[in-house]
Amino acid sequence: MPKPKIFSEVEMVNEIDNKENKISHEYEEFLEHIIKIFFSSYKDKKIFLSIFNLDKKCLFATDRTKLEFGFLKHINETDYFVLSQNEKLKIDYYHNATKEILDMCMNSHSIVSCIVFDKLSNRHGALHIMYTPIYAPNGNVCGVLSQGYDYTRMFWGCNNFNNADFNISLLKSLTQRQRNILYLLAIGYSQKRVSDALNIKRGTVSNVCYQISIRLGFESYSVEKLLERIGRYNIIKTLDVPDINIKSMIMYFVHSKSLEYNDEIVKIIENPFDN
Predict the structure, then answer these.
(1) How far is the C-alpha of 1 from the C-alpha of 39, rounded, in Å?
(2) Is the CB of residue 211 less than 8 Å from the CB of residue 178?
(3) Is there a contact between 152 and 126 (Cβ–Cβ < 8 Å)?
(4) CA–CA separation, 97 and 271 (whole Å)
(5) How many folded domains does the chain comprise?
(6) What is the CATH number of the domain that holds 195?
(7) Residue-number span of the structural domain to which 20 is assigned
(8) Fewer CB in a 10 Å sphere around the end CB: N or C, the chain?
(9) Distance from the first to the final alpha carbon of the chain
(10) Do residue 169 and residue 40 come from a single domain?
(11) How far apart are CA 145 and CA 60, in angstroms?
């Protein structure tokens, strides 16, 4: 009867490494030739969709995703280095936040819901992104699929905030200061926060809202009534974003029943580069 082969410690480590490398290669093949090909037809669609491997490298992203978040910067460094400093900081912020969320998704084997509040296509918006684990044929997680949906209308366009009867062309008759104040109020700034952001007195905000109401022919002069008559979503989709720092924020939720992730169920990642 042949004697069993005795492996040295080095041989055992090499054997484990070889098996892990083989599995890793199989995962990459599965993502590249099955998952990526399946979603390749979405490349030029106006949706947010990305595929990540276990190393958190973006293997695929739609054109819309690349335009907004630059997830492929590490694939084409040349494009990255010609960006302005502010653009680089924004991309770095999203890359770091995405890595954190991908870790949570892979480690918990759970779907992670993410809400992004930021400028999207030069409009302040809310983006809902679902990070879903991708499972290989052997049942293990081999990557993550992210799919995003523009929730701007959901956040600011419901509950009578989207007045279809209002003539949005009237907003163009407002002064730049009036438009800036109206925009910040529409995305949820308090009057005090508006005054701080624009470096004006708190009373000035109230006076400007009164002037806007008069100019648009409204009888009620309260801020809430003003926003309701115009429609928050009408304001956000029509007016330009004020040229000030509006803090971007990412908030995510982990859909997991595991007690291990109870402390991570809700987390907010604010942009450290916003002043």
Answers:
(1) 54
(2) yes
(3) yes
(4) 9
(5) 2
(6) 1.10.10.10
(7) 9-153+246-270
(8) N
(9) 75
(10) no
(11) 10
Contact yes or no for 123/265 (Cβ under 8 A): no
Judge if pTM exceeds 0.70.
Answer: no
Provide the 8-state DSSP code for 4: P
| 150 SS3 class | strand
CA distance 147 to 155: 18
Q: Do the domain assignments include residue 255?
A: yes
Are 27 and 112 contained in the same domain?
yes
pLDDT in tens, the chain (275 residues): 555 555 555 555 555 555 556 678 899 999 999 999 999 999 888 888 999 999 888 889 898 888 776 555 444 444 444 455 666 666 677 778 888 889 989 988 888 888 887 765 556 667 888 999 999 999 999 999 999 887 766 665 544 445 556 777 888 889 999 988 988 888 778 888 889 888 899 899 999 999 998 888 887 778 888 888 888 777 877 887 777 666 666 777 776 655 454 444 456 665 554 54
Long-range CB pairs of 28-33 (<8 Å, 24+ gap) are: 28/53, 30/136, 30/137, 30/142, 31/59, 31/134, 31/142, 31/143, 32/59
